[in-house]
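Researcher: I'm comparing several assemblies side by side, and this is the next one on my list. It has 702 residues spread over three chains. Same procedure as the others: predict the full complex and return the structure.
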Amino acid sequence: MVTYGKGLRPLSIVTAILLAGGLVLALFYAPIDADQGFRQKIFYIHVPMAITAMGGFIAGGIAGIMYLRTEDAKWDLRSYTWIHQALILALGALITGSIWAKTAWGHWWVWDEPTLVSFLIVFLLYCTYQPLRFSIEDRDKQSRYAAVFAITAGAFVPLNFMAVRMAQSLSHPRVLATSEGGLPPEMQLPFYTMIVAMILLFITLSKYEMASKNARAQIRTLRRRMGGDEGPQRRSAAPSLPATTPTSPS
Amino acid sequence: MRHAVIALLRKEAALELRTPQVIPAMALFSVITYVVFHFGLKRNQLEGDLASGVLWVTILFAAMLGIARLFVSDREEGGFDAFLLAPVDRTAMFVAKAISMFSYLVLVQVIAIPAFVILLLGPTPDGTQALNLVAVLALADLGIAVVGTLVGALAVQTRARDLIVPMLALPLLVPVIIGAARASAPLFALHATALPGKWLAVLALYDLVFGLLAYGVFDYLVED
Amino acid sequence: MDAQPALDLRGVTRRYGERVALADCTFTLDAGRTLVVFGPNGAGKSTLLRILATLLRTHEGTAKVLGHDLKKEGWKVRGHVGLLGHDPLLYKDLTIRENLRFHARLYRVPEARIDELLEAVGLTVRADDQVHTLSRGLVQRAAVCRAVLHDPPLLLLDEPRANLDPAAADIVEPLIGAASGRTRVVTSHDPVGGLVGADMALGLQAGYTALLEPAAGVTPEMVGELYR
């Protein structure tokens, strides 16, 4: 049986160190922006969150493809978890983006920033993932449909980003630099550190979630084997790991 | 596969002709929405960006009605099983349903566009603009049909079908609204200018990507 | 062709989440024979039929239907199976004839066959009435036409005599009965009537096989035991 708990402690420690280190670098090492002052530093949290969330959604889509091809419940669990974590990070990206907009321009929301707008659309779309899963009772069907959603939405993310950018390109020039090139060297170190830290955070939290679900599934299987049902299955949006075929009743 | 698609289309046509529900509802919905916009925006005439926006929002919301109904008769009357038992390619259902949805949109627009021109549009478009508008409509309708079929199939198996459809379809169709609205705005302007080609390219790319994707995953949605 | 059994199942298992719908089902059935399946509701009868119809996939075990392995060549089986379930699989707003035409086109069956079948079940008069105007018995007759339209060598019948009065049951008998020469799997709740015309009997309980015998050796009392 697959365990997800391997190497979790060293991973968590490394993640914590990198996150702390990145934040320290961002706060003290990186230069203060000439126009926007200290507040611009939220960029070091907002952009890595956004990039990681995007990556998470696309990874969820790829896991969906793998699930449809292999029908291995492990991929369904990965798809569910990665989308779940990416959604949380996307919410974080929206909140930090909003704070940044408020401090930079005095409004809690600006339509001119295409990243922010794209994220709002993507966030709204993925908010339907869990309700969709929950509303399908048959577990096999639920996993399959969720995979189709993950693939569709995953393909949608880059398309949407592109379309929104094109729509806004006529108004403001882009204010948040997300491309790798064009960053002065003093900003590069904290920026890249934060990106790596965010990705590690995503992976660590995902592993925690998968390990927890896996453990719960194993406990449930053991309970069943030891005696009797635990009653009717409660409807759930979370993927279930398959039990092994029980032996015939005597 | 072609004979299966034709068989399905004939069945769809027979059903809709027998009890016309979807097309009249969508058409009526469009016209009443124009009235609502008139009062909501407090405007007698629209032009340019605003006209384009109102038209496309109306088309999009009318499409939600069609998408929600697309698979209902099959689901309720065991049509899926009947189709799944037959020795035909399952993707034929996707093609047939997408063509149906596209046809619904076109037929509704035959009423909805003239109604829009009469009720809300300020400047009257000339021949070239009308043709350009048809091009935009064709590409946008194709995108709506493809994504609508996918979402309709996803939603019909859930218990909250009519809630899930707009929640899924509207975000997915945002690029279509962007492309279609931006492309039609110059056609409705007071001093009408040419159609910006890049938005047609965006629509075409969207249609291609989602068309291929839906074609690939649809099989997994129909089987039990 | 004659040497191979029409149905060959080994250890077929199907789950719904963590519940087992059909467990370790194993039997063979020769061509032209009839298998009757008994069992209380939820025992797995419908699941078995749907697996044989290629509508459901198996989670474990192998199933060969008409010589084709379901996992690898399931699609080849599809045109050779007729399913008559609880759902008539007919669109209510269309007429019988329109429904049958739809199926005929899907299976590439000539339209003359439709008239032939309507005649055989006595529905020619009502053929152009919408399905929702018909009584349950007539709908079932129409469903029988749909099931045998493509002359399938394998018939899967889920309580076929439900909703049919005795006269109608006699009318459809040559099409779906033992005399039709088709291989048949029939589910039944009738311990006496179900054994008539059957060659083998399978009894299911909560997905597991509780009884598997040639029908001649099965008494109605043994069937009754399944329901206790």
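Model: For your comparison table: The two ends of chain B are 21 Å apart (CA to CA).
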